[in-house]
Design brief:
Strand content: 15-25%
CATH class of the largest domain: Alpha Beta
Distance between the termini: 114 Å
CATH topology of the largest domain: Rossmann fold
CATH architecture of the largest domain: 3-Layer(aba) Sandwich
Strand order of the largest sheet: 8-12-11-13-14-10-15-16
Radius of gyration: 29 Å
Amino acid sequence: MATVQQEVQQFFSDTFDIVERVRQTFVPRLTVQEFGTVTFVGEGIARVVGLPNVQLEEVVRFANGVQGQVFNLDADEVGIILLGHAAGLRAGDQVMRTGRVQDIAVGPALLGRVISATGAPLDGLPAPHLHERTPVERPAPPIMQRAPVTVPLQTGIKVIDALLPIGRGQRELILGDRQTGKSAIALDTIINQRDQDVICVYCSVGQRSAAVARLIADLRRHDALGYTVVVVAGGDDPPGLQFIAPYAATTIGEYFMLQGRDVLIVYDDLTHHARAYRELSLLLRRPPGREAYPGDIFYIHSRLLERSTHLKSEYGGGSLTALPIVETQGQDMSAYIPTNLISITDGQIYLSPALFHRSIIPAVDVGRSVSRVGGKAQLPAYHAVAGPLRLAYSQFEELEIFSRFSTRLDEQTRKTLERGRHVRELLKQPQYHPIPVPEQIAVLLAAAAGLFDPLPLDEVRRAEQAVRETVKTQLPDLYRHILAGKPLSPEDRQSLLDTARSALARAHAPGYVA
């Protein structure tokens, strides 16, 4: 009896298997799609009714092919930011869910390319072959996965590497008024990574097309485009693209960081990003706050910059260093957006228009700039010159202000002012000319010892070049010793000073006395 029952059960089981295979083979699979209807189209946004199951940040597709991202989930309608131009889009058009959040394709093929915030190529070349897509909005690495910032990221700029050091995994804000050289510092830093095994991501938000084209040409001319990804959301692009561009660029940088690579990302600039977010929020009727920005403006930048970090070795050991740029108006560092970003980042480099107009370039105001990582992310050789030099230079700037009110100065004050003027002349540096670390240290050490003091100011630049060339050719072992991260011994210091002294003697008058 049991055998007959087992045979019957087997028969029905086989029959069900046959029916299921026939159904899967011959019956088309049905899919359910949700559609909504556009009720309003504005400058960069749309409002839609329907889509009862749509999710926040989900991508939707309009009838004209333009994509959008769900931004508001209200009781009666859905607010959507457009990721393309609204031409041809009108009330009554259908909107379809895609079922996925906003993402971007990532991979090594992006290096050397110029793309939009959605990953579309902008350099006239075919789309890169990429097989992995990652959401543009991702949580920051948890604290337990982060390692201390200890490895320097050299910019090649003397005043920054010596006095305001940046470490790999740090977030250093660059701020200043318009046309003071903010982008130039970021560009020089990218160029200086040419032999440093650092991948760079440059994110342009709200910039003029001509300025972006000029920067790309500069990167190509200095052989820096090959290890750089350029993400562009121009000033004439919809505000939705300008809003998601920094997040998309960070996702690209995170891909390489998780592979164990060191990455530098530049956001140029977050002032335009904040304005784009303000425009979208006001159009979608989010409550305005200070300066008409919505209340979560701090959150959109903090969740962006918190993704920059240095990972522990067990999580790959990669790093993502951020250089956000923000524009001030009338040197007002206490404005809403600059204040927010100063509190989020690990320090700031302030560029003074007063210094810029006096041809002190880069126009870094050392007194108002700070690196909160400091010497922990600086090569040991800098410790011999950086601390005393920063203190002496700050004292000189204060003394120079007071000296304008007095015509009678004592000898010590005159010497301090003369030393400070020579140091300031040495800290000047033309764009596109990053300087290697050993040459920076040799020049600054000589300046701190007063070797440049007997020279006229207009001779300092030529003398600096002579010192750099002599150190490079006559002290190759010490040159490599410094690059390897070894501290300077007293013998090394004396060797650098003797070499600098002989270089200055040969470059100038026979009667030169240091």
